[in-house]
Amino acid sequence: MAELELSRVSKTYGAFNALRDVSLKIGDGEFAVFVGPSGCGKSTLLRLVAGLDPVSEGQIAIGGNDVTTRQAGQRPVAMVFQNYALYPHMSVYDNIAFPLQMERRSRQEIKQEVARAAQVVQLSTRLQDKPAKLSGGQRQRVAIARAIVRKPGIFLMDEPLSNLDAALRMEMRSELTQLHRRLGSTMVYVTHDQLEAMTMADRIVVLNGGKVEQVGAPMELYHNPANLFVAGFIGSPPMNFIAGVAGSIAGEAMLRVEAPGFGEVTVPYDGSAVRTGDKVTLGIRPEAVTLGDATDDSISFSIVPDIIERLGLHTIVHSESGGRPFTALFNGDPRLRPGEQIHVRVPRTQIYLFDQDGVGRSRQIAA
Amino acid sequence: MASRSSATATGAFNQNLGAYLFLAPALLILFLSLLLPAVATIGMSLTDVSFLRPTTFVGLDNYLRLLSDGRFQQAVGNTTYYTLGVTLPTMVLGLLAAVALNRRFPFRIAFRTIFYLPVLTSLIAAAVVWVYLYEPYSGPMNGFLVSLGLPPQPWLQSPDLAMTALIIMAVWRDFGTAMIIYLAGLQDIPEEIYEAARLDGAGRLAILRRITVPMLSSVTFYLMIILIVQSFQVFGAIYVMTGGGPLGSTETIVFQMYQTAFGYTEFGYAAAMSTVLFFVILLFSIVGTKIMRRGEA
To answer: Which residues form the ABC transporter domain (chain A) (predicted)?
Structure first.
């Protein structure tokens, strides 16, 4: 177990800046998830921590020790790869035993450790098989067992579930969460899937274009996204954005916004640097939309459903509003038909406000 | 029911007939160029054909003669020595060169080209150059030995050394082939596996021994079979460099076959040698293929 600290880490490939000035601290025993779109630098960051690529600038410390210049094998980390990276010519036993054999441990000790790790990942009966004989999920478990035997300070996982089918992915998700709880070790997990990030993480690090956009607990990112990127990335279906112009301050901590297609919208506002006439963006999560007319503390508008996706538990409605696509998510299975206008409302406290630079302005969430 | 199945059979036959008609030109060429000479050779091996006297059928006499022919046995021994001497070093050097040149460093394409050049040179031209290199009085090889303070050697003139000299040249010529085949094999090993091994604490030597070499095993078998078969058939270099001498020390099966047929006009006897060689090579190919298939499973 160990904590991870990155100080002003940068990585460049020729003229391309893969990572810019990343500083980050991940606590001992924490499950941290790096999330972001492809090419955002999340896998690069993981490879730097693993020691597979050298940093261009900055320091990496694990458990308080600077490991920036240490070779991959000399860092207290173990990694699980997207394609498992099992040794195809070795049996499951030898795959798991390999790191211990490299440490020149005794045969007896290796046998015990492998047996223990195999039990944790429920593969005790498959130790003599070659990886080719195993299913995708089993191969992933072998890779995890190979990481476990090293007793690393930090587990690094690079999109470990992306090659599995949807059902297996869900199962492995909860298995990994349980494993983390049982081992209590620090885990750094990379994914492009915000659902994995939301369900597994203690803390999420959102990366975009080689920069950290926001770090926080899943619900913190959901309720208080730092900017438009995080707001759009966290949450599914993604948040609706509505362009508007800031009007006057309306009473206590409220701001009037003129939003074409929606009229004048009054939203909560923390009194910070938004001036009359500024271009602002309003954000509405699809799940904040309900059917019905306006009330005192909500705004109301009409939409015309274009596509209706019925999922049983929810119904997702895609429509065009104010010339831009608008998505709403309703509970259950309301009677809606494509092309038939409906009235919807959104509580004012559920409307997000972003200033002209796309920075989120903190909302006052109703108590 | 019966009529339907016969109808399908006719349909299948018509379909097959079309296929065979399309294949006919290729099959005819294969038959004339490969199968016919092979069958004719086996046929000839049962006769005493020499084109100088009437041919008679001699049954297995040629084969029985081979069993007690001391000269042939020496040729078998020479061929085996040559084959072992060429195959093993060629593979080891080819593997090391491939591993070294698979890494990214400046001029690696240039190095690959240089190492592969011997494969592309004309065998006869290369052999002539090597005869000069091995020249006992003014040749560079002995010049090199003398500069190291070692005694010069009669490379191609000593029965003890001539075959080794031929082996050195063959390794020089063939290891480029081994290198290219190993390079192709190395490129099939995913980078992630090396990264996993590095993270697992494996050093360079451990990675070579535990990951690279085992993962190249099917390539190694393929290469070994190719080199064995090729070495069994060695002829050109011997014809140019030693003519089978001194004292028959470099006389291989194919060289002896050539001499028996075209030197002594004993075509029937040479055909028997050729048949034996053919079946030995066939055996190696079958065993090699079997091992490779098992490795893939």
So the answer is: 4-234
